[in-house]
Amino acid sequence: MISGTGGPPLLLLVDLQRGIDDPSKGPRNNPDAEEAIQRLLTIWREQGFPIVHVRHDSKEPDSLLRGDLPGFEYKPGLEPREGEKEFIKHVNGPFAGTELKSWIDERGLKTIVICGLVTDHCVSTTAREAENRGFDVVVVEDGTATFGRTLGDKEFDADTIHWTALAHLNGEFAEIVTTQQMVDEMKSS
């Protein structure tokens, strides 16, 4: 997972914002995602490994993630601390229109561990962008979550969307692991 060259693994946290919790989004799978993320965040901080927080500042007029709304704020307990880098994005992926890639390259990092919200949108886009730029990508399956979706008269529950999105990434764009697998790997390396 995280062994090899390229410095310590980067923990990349995507869109852990209050607007994601709005009831209008409907039921979400994996209600424990934030707890899993907090567990990894604690380990990264203890190890002094690099952490990047990405926040979405939407330009869509009806978005809950606009920078001038309360939904833009971080979820409690998941805010960046001093020394942790933050990038603001305006589209689904944090590599477009930001200095994220150059920031990572300047530090000689090769492996990116991704957690955040939501699985099938910004997490998936982030993983695909990172892999396409030559990084080794790990997505933590229980460190992400999503909502149900519809297409015409078809409805897909949140769990189906979550696992389908992860299946699309697996082996092609990212390695999919659990929080416990990451914890075990961190302890052994």
Walk me through the structure.
- The chain has a single domain (13-188), classed as 3-Layer(aba) Sandwich (Rossmann fold), CATH 3.40.50.850.
- 31% of the residues lie in helices and 22% in strands.
- The protein has helices at 33-47, 100-106, 119-132, 158-169, 179-188, and strands spanning 10-14, 51-56, 85-89, 111-117, 136-145, 149-151, 154-156, 175-177.
- Helix 3 (119-132) links the parallel strand 4 (111-117) and strand 5 (136-145).
- Helix 1 packs parallel to helix 5 (179-188).
- It is globular, with a radius of gyration of 16 Å.
- It starts with 9 loop residues before the first strand and ends with a helix.
- The mean pLDDT is 95.
Give a short synopsis of this structure:
Helix content is 31%, strand content 22%. It has 189 residues and is an alpha/beta fold.
Give descriptors for this structure:
Rossmann fold; globular; six-stranded parallel β-sheet; single chain; 5 helices; 189 residues
Helices and strands, with pairings:
Layout: E1 10-14, H1 33-47, E2 51-56, E3 85-89, H2 100-106, E4 111-117, H3 119-132, E5 136-145, E6 149-151, E7 154-156, H4 158-169, E8 175-177, H5 179-188
Helix pairs in contact: 1-5, 3-4
The parts where pLDDT drops under 50 for at least 5 residues are: none
The whole-number mean of residue pLDDT values reads: 95
**Domain module count:** 1
What's the main sheet like?
6 strands, parallel
The name of the CATH superfamily reads: Isochorismatase-like
Q: How large a portion of the residues is in β-strands, by DSSP E?
A: 15-25%
How many DSSP E strands? 8
Order of helices and strands: EHEEHEHEEEHEH
Q: End-to-end distance, in Å?
A: 11 Å
Q: Write down the Rg.
A: 16 Å
CATH architecture: 3-Layer(aba) Sandwich
